[in-house]
Sequence to fold (144 residues):
Amino acid sequence: MIKTFRGILEDGGQDQIRLQTIQGKVGYRIVKFQLFPNKPGTTTVEAVVSIFKTPGKGSGTSTAEVDFTDTNLLAVAFHQDRHEATYTATESVVFDNETFNQDIYITLTDTIGTEKCNYYIELEVIPLTDMGAEYTTIKSLRAG
Fold:
């Protein structure tokens, strides 16, 4: 089964996607992550959108810096769209094949302006055993 989430982020903003269940026996894995500008073709935007396991300072906050060694980072996407005829829009998306069972946090930084950006995420729903739920929960807590 696939669950989808979509939204729009302000520059410097953060959304929380509520996934946590009481027993934690439902896991999720990212299968698709896409960005779409708020005003396509009319503004210049360079959006860095990241998905983290936990909110807070340092990792998990809205920043243009991307560090693939950060164990809190699940995915990152970069969308560049310049309002000039000589440039075409580009997008790069990288996400981990990690299973998680806690809430996730999505942040946006526009590196050259203050534009909003839409996001779309598809998560694969994975049933977890008692042991799998415990392992995934502890792993998420340690990442924070």
User: Anything to note?
Assistant: The CA atoms of residues 43 and 83 lie 5 Å apart. The two ends are 28 Å apart (CA to CA).
